[in-house]
C-alpha cells in the first residue's frame, strides 16, 4: 500500500478540524434562546402593560422572543419565589416593583427565601406618580382643607386600598403618620374595586397610580387633590406636589427589571445597557407618557441602592403603623 501524502492545504484543514471546539468557539452570545419575563400581577394592569412594551422592544433588539409570564398572587411572592428558583443565566427575568421586593421582605419575613437578597437588580424602567383622590362631593377643595376636615373628625372618614399590606394601603398609613390624622382603612381585592367603591361614594378617599385612576379624574368621577411626590408630574403639572410641605409623605410607584442573584455581571450589564437604549427611543417614551409613567433608568448598582432605600422606608412605616401579614 502506498503511503498517504497530504498536501499542505489539506493538512491545514485536518489540523483545524482536530482543534478542540473551545479553542475556536467563545461563549455563546446572550441571548441565544427565549427569555422569560415574570410579572407579579394579572395581565392588563399598568405594570403588565409596561412589561409587555419593554419585552416587545427587547425581542426586536435581541432577535429572540421575550415572553411575558404573569404570575400573580401572594403579594408578589409567587413570582419572586419562581425567580429565586430559576437558573442564574439571564433567561428568566422578573418585573420588580415594591410589592414583590422591598415591601415583600418586610411584610413576609418568614418566606423561605429573601425577596431582596435573591435578586440581582438590573435597571429601573419607569416611575408612576401616585395621586391622592377623593369622592367628588367630599367637602374639601384642596389638601389643606382635607387635612383640617380629617383632624376635626377623627375616625369618621375612610380610605380605600387594593388590599391589606398593598402599596396603596401603605400610602394611606404614611399619610396618617405624616399628617397626624385618623382615618379608617377599607381594603379591597384590587385597585379596580377600590376605585369603583370610591366613585360610588362608599369610601371617601384613596391613593392610586396615575395610569390606573387618571381617566376617572378626567371624567369628573373623582377629584385629584395632588400628586404624592416632591415635584409636580409632567403628566399633570397643574396638580400640586404634596410632599413639599411633608417630606416623609412621598410615595412613588416604580417598576424595574431584576434577575436571579448570581447572574453573571456581564449579562446584567448588557441587559441594563439595552434597556437604557430602548428608554431613549421616542416611540417608547411616547408610550410611557401616554400612561402617565415617567421613564427612569439607572445602573445595576444604583438600582440596588434604590431598592435598599425603598425597603428601609417601608420598614419604618410598616413598623410604626403596626401592619402585619404573617
TrEMBL record:
The keyword Metal-binding does not apply. The keyword NADP does not apply. Keywords: Receptor, Signal. Residues 1-23 form the signal peptide. InterPro entries: BUG (IPR005064), Bug_dom1 (IPR042100). It holds the Pfam family TctC. PANTHER family: BLR1237 PROTEIN, TRICARBOXYLATE-BINDING PROTEIN. Belongs to the UPF0065 (bug) family. This is Tripartite-type tricarboxylate transporter, receptor component TctC. The lineage of its organism: Bacteria, Pseudomonadati, Pseudomonadota, Alphaproteobacteria, Hyphomicrobiales.
Amino acid at each position: 500500500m502506498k503511503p498517504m501524502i497530504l498536501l499542505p492545504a489539506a493538512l491545514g484543514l485536518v489540523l483545524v478540524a482536530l482543534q478542540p471546539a473551545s479553542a475556536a468557539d467563545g461563549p455563546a452570545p446572550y441571548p441565544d434562546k427565549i427569555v422569560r419575563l415574570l410579572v407579579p400581577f394579572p395581565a392588563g394592569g399598568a405594570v403588565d402593560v409596561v412589561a409587555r412594551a419593554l419585552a416587545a422592544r427587547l425581542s426586536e433588539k435581541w432577535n429572540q422572543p421575550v415572553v411575558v409570564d404573569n404570575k400573580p398572587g401572594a403579594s408578589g411572592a409567587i413570582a419572586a419565589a419562581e425567580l429565586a428558583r430559576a437558573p442564574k443565566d439571564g433567561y428568566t427575568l422578573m418585573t420588580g416593583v415594591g410589592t414583590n421586593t422591598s415591601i415583600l421582605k418586610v411584610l413576609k419575613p418568614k418566606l423561605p427565601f429573601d425577596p431582596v437578597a435573591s435578586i440581582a437588580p438590573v435597571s429601573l424602567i419607569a416611575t408612576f406618580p401616585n395621586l391622592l383622590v377623593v369622592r367628588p362631593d367630599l367637602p374639601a377643595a384642596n389638601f389643606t382643607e382635607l387635612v383640617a376636615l380629617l383632624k376635626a373628625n377623627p375616625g369618621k372618614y375612610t380610605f380605600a386600598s387594593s388590599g391589606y399590606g398593598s402599596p396603596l394601603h401603605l400610602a394611606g398609613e404614611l399619610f396618617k403618620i405624616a399628617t397626624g390624622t385618623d382615618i379608617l382603612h377599607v381594603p379591597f381585592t384590587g385597585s379596580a374595586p377600590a376605585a369603583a367603591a370610591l366613585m360610588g361614594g362608599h369610601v371617601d378617599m384613596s391613593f392610586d397610580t396615575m395610569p390606573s385612576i387618571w381617566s376617572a379624574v378626567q371624567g369628573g368621577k373623582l377629584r385629584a387633590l395632588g400628586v404624592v411626590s416632591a415635584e409636580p408630574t409632567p403628566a399633570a403639572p397643574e396638580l400640586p406636589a404634596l410632599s413639599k410641605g411633608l417630606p416623609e409623605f412621598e410615595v412613588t410607584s416604580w417598576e424595574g427589571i431584576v434577575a436571579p442573584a448570581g447572574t453573571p455581571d456581564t449579562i446584567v450589564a448588557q441587559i441594563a445597557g439595552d434597556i437604557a437604549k430602548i428608554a431613549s427611543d421616542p416611540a417608547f417614551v411616547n408610550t410611557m407618557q401616554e400612561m402617565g409613567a415617567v421613564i427612569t433608568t439607572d445602573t445595576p448598582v444604583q438600582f440596588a441602592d434604590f431598592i435598599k432605600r425603598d425597603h428601609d422606608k417601608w420598614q419604618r412605616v410598616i413598623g410604626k403603623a403596626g401592619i402585619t401579614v404573617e
